[in-house]
Amino acid sequence: MSVRTASSSLGLLGGLVWIAGALLGWGDDPVTDTADLLWLIGLTLLVVSGGLAGYALVASAPLWLRAVVTVCSAALVGVVVTTLAPDLEIAATPLLVAGVLLLLAAGAGLVAQRGDAA
After folding, report:
1. Beta strands of 11-90 (E only): which ranges?
2. Rounded CA gap, 117 and 80, in Å?
3. Domain spans of the chain?
4. Residue 21 to residues 15, 73, 112, 115, Cα–Cα distance (Å)
């Protein structure tokens, strides 16, 4: 499995986890603990996916540069997502939308990877 495939697969899994968290927390004014935990798991998967995507960008670079880009890409993804989620209070509808968008983006990455292999 290539790094790009692993990155897209983790992004796809993160989107599925976010959709599950949105469906479990649907209709609850305060988001349930389970939905909140699934949001954090999805965020972790997304951050790791971002780090792997950064690594794939510089796969032939020196080791120190690969390490820097991997850490910075993961940090950038984490900062952007937590900035967009106001005070980490996640409601079901935005979480569902984010999960669907993540599924679409990761699915497009997997399709592009399959097209490159053929």
Report:
1. none
2. 31
3. 3-117
4. 10, 25, 28, 32
